[in-house]
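Bench notes, afternoon.
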Amino acid sequence: MGVASKPDQATGSRLSSCIGLTVITVCVFLLDMKLQEARGGELDSGQADGDRYFYVAEVLTVLGCMVLPAVFFQLRGHRAVWKGGKVPRASKQCSEKPPPCAVSRSSERARVGASASAAATVQAVAGRPTSETALAKSGLARLNQAISSAARDGDLRCAERWFWEIQRSGHQPDLISFNSVIHACAKQGDTARAELWMQRMRSSNVRPNTISYNILMDACVKAEDADGAERWLAQMLRDGVEANEISYATVIHARAKNGDTAKAERWLQQMLEAGVQPNVVSYNSLIYACGRRGDVDGAERWVYEMEARGLEPRVTSYSAVVDACAKSGDVLRAEKWMEKMIGAGVEPNVVSYSSMIDCCARAEDLERAEHWLCKMAERGVQPNAHSFSALINTCSKRGDVVAAVRALGRMEQANVDGDVVVYGSVLDACAKAGDVVRAKQVFQQMRSRGIRPNLITYSALARPFAHRGDWVEVEAIMKQMNSEGLAVNEYFLYVLLLSYATAKPRQPERAEAAFLQAWGNRVEINKHVTSVLSRAVGRARCQELMQSATKLSGRSTLRA
C-alpha cells in the first residue's frame, strides 16, 4: 500500500483537533465546578478570605481557557509546517547561499534534517516504510524547478549552485537539470560556458536531446556566431538527434541576420530534403534579409512561396516587404503590399506604417507620407519617433521648414517623445530656409523638454545666423555651448568662420584667431574649413596660416 492520501491526512488532522479541544473544554468545566463548590462552602462558613482566593482561581481558569487552545494550535501549526516543508524557490535563496560550487555545512545539515523530518512524517501517516525512489524523484524535481526558475531569471550563478546541490543531495542530475543550466548560459550569451555544460552532460552519460542543441544554437545566434550555430546543427545530425523546424529556423535566421541569404537558402533546401516543414519564422528570416538589402523581388518571392506551402504571412512578413520597397523608394509597390496586408485581414502595426512613411519620405513625396500618417491615426495605431523622424528628415532635406515644424507639432500632440536627432533635423530645415526666428523657438522647445543639445544641434542653430553674417550671435551660441562642456569641432568651426566671411564688413582677424585656436586644440581641418577660411581671410593669407601651422605642429593641416 502507498502513503495515505492528502484528503485522509486532512480528515485525521481535523478529528484530532476536535478531540483535543473537547478534552481541554471538559477539564476547564470540571475545574470551574470545583471552584463553585468551594465558593459555596466558603460563603456558608463565613470565611473573610474566601472571596480573594475565589477570584484568583477564577482568573487562572479564564487564562487557561485562552492560553491552552492557543498553545495547542501553535503546536499543530508547527507540525503542519514540518510535514509540508519544501525546497525554497531559487530566487529567494541565491542571495543567502555561499559562492558557486560551495554550500555551507549548516545548509547541508538543514537540508538533510528537512528530508529526514519529511520522511518520518510520511511514515507516521502511512504506517509503513517510505518509498525511497519516490522521495528521490520528488527531491530532484524540486531542485530542477529551482534551476529552471534561476534560468528564466537569467541568473547563471544561481542555476549552477542549485545544480551542484543536486549532487550533494545524493541525486543524479538528469536531462532537465543540464538543459536548464545550458539555458541559463544562453540567456547570458555565454556560449563558451554553455558548450562546457554540454560536455559535462556527455561525460555524465546523459544524452543531449533536440532541446539541448536548440538552446546552444540560439545562444550562438544571440552572440552573432552564425558559424557556431551551423557547427552545432551539424553535430546534432551526426549524433543522430532529430532536428526539428526550430533547429533549422535558428540557423536560417543566423545566416539571414548577417545578410548571407545564399547560405540561408541552402539550409532551407536541406530542411525540405530532411522532410521538415518550414515554419513562418524560417520564411520571415529570408524576407527580412532581402528587405535589409532592398531586394524587393527576393522578398516578394519568399512571401509567395510561403503562401504556396499553406502558411499565412504575418504582419512581420508584410512589413519586411514594405521595408524593402522603402529602401528602393518604390512608393506604388509599397502601397500595393499595404493594401494586400489589409485585404488579407492582417492589421498593419507601427512598423508597417513607419516603413510606408519612410518609403514616401525617401521618394520626397511629403503628401503621401502625411496621408499614411493620418491613416495610421485613423486606425488607432500609436506612432513612434521613427514614424515622424523619416518625415521630418525629408522636410529638412527639402528645406521645408513649415512642414517640418508641422510634423514636430503633430509628434508632440501624439505624446511621442522626440530626441536630439529629431529636433536637430527641424533645426537643419530652419537653417536651410534661413529662418532664425523658428530656429530659436525650436531650440527652446527642445530645451524645455529636457533634451540636451549636442554639437550638431548647436551647429544647426548657428548656421542661419552665420549665413546672415551675424557673428555676434554665433559667438554667443559658441559661448553657451562651451559652458555646457562642449568644445568646438570641425562642424562648428566651419559655421563660425562662415559668419566671419559673410559679415559686413568681413572679420579676417577674428577668423584667423579662431582658426589658430582650433588648430591648437587639435581640431581636425577638412576642405570645407579651409575653403571658408579662404573666404574670410583671403586665399594668400589662408595658405600662409596653414603653412605656419604645419611648421609649428609638424602635422598635416588638411583632412579629406
